[in-house]
Amino acid sequence: MDKITKKYSLKEISKRTHISPLSLKRLLNYEFETISEIKFNGFLKILENEFSDYDFKELKSRANEFYSSKHLEQTTEETINHTNNNFKVYLIVIVLIVSIGFLINYMQHLQTQKVKASNDISIVETNLTKIVQDLNETTPNEIVVEEKIEDKNISPEVSSFFNEKDKNMTLVIVPKQRVWFRVTYLDTNKSKNYIQAVPEEFNGSRDIYIEFGHGMETLIFNDKNVSPNSVEKVNFILKDGELNITTLPKSEFYK
Question: In 3D, which of 109, 11, 3, 12 has the Cα closest to residue 55?
Fold first, then answer.
């Protein structure tokens, strides 16, 4: 970025890439806190296409370091929360075991003393019976909580799968120049028109039909980049997690 800014002003770079001067300044200063990882990848793709003679290794390295650190912080926080939950369950189980042991010892002590007062014995037995019943009713619930938490330990790859799935369920449209396009969500048949030259993000977990006025844009979805590079109109279909160019009208895909 430093070499580019020595030759071009931020205004010139913004005019060529359609990236706002504020976003360019943040990239220049490696301020990734306000830029999502998916949007950064879109900006980087535009810069590499527009300034193919320049090296962006430093920018990539700094970004990878930042986003990797951010992922590590999130993982560490989840691990701490999970550990705290396990500790609470184990503490409850220990308290229950100690309480039961105390009750057993107390009952044995009462038997050795040979309490003669039948009324007192009846009261003690009634209270002990109620406590034991309460413990028996509480213990299964606690065990269920523990089993649920252990399930998360047994299959961490399931949690990893859903995190990865959420991350990949974002569709990013990165125009190379100003373009009109219409986005239609097939589950509701509702459409919205756009005219812009800056990246736009959409929920890729839904089925979408997209119509472009020309093919000078890049679509990023699920680690797949598609760039038609055409001055003709082009249509895309995102259905069942697959992104493809299509010549069929959107009526063919309505649910």
Answer: 3
Is the C-alpha dihedral spanning 144, 148, 149, 153 positive or negative? Answer: positive
Q: What is the pLDDT of residues 161-188, one digit of tens each?
A: 434 445 568 999 999 999 999 999 999 9
The DSSP bridge pattern shows strands 234-239 and 200-203 to be unpaired
Using an 8 Å Cβ cutoff, are 177 and 216 in contact? Answer: yes
- Per-residue model confidence as pLDDT tens digits over 39-50: 999 998 999 898
Task: Give dist(CA 141, CA 128) in Å, integer.
Answer: 21
209: closest CA among 175, 243, 173, 172? 243
How far apart CA 235 and CA 244 sit, in angstroms, is 9
Q: pTM for the whole thing?
A: 0.37
Please give the Cα distance from 96 to 103 (Å, whole number). 11
Tell me how far apart the alpha carbons of residues 93 and 139 are, in angstroms, rounded to a whole number: 8
Q: Provide the strand spans (E) within the chain.
A: 170-175, 179-185, 190-196, 200-203, 208-212, 217-221, 224-226, 234-239, 242-246
**Alpha-carbon gap, residue 56 to 148, rounded angstroms:** 46
Q: Which whole-number Å values give the CA distances from 69 to 18, 29, 159, 162, in the listed order?
A: 29, 18, 19, 20
Here the tokens at position 128 are 């002990």
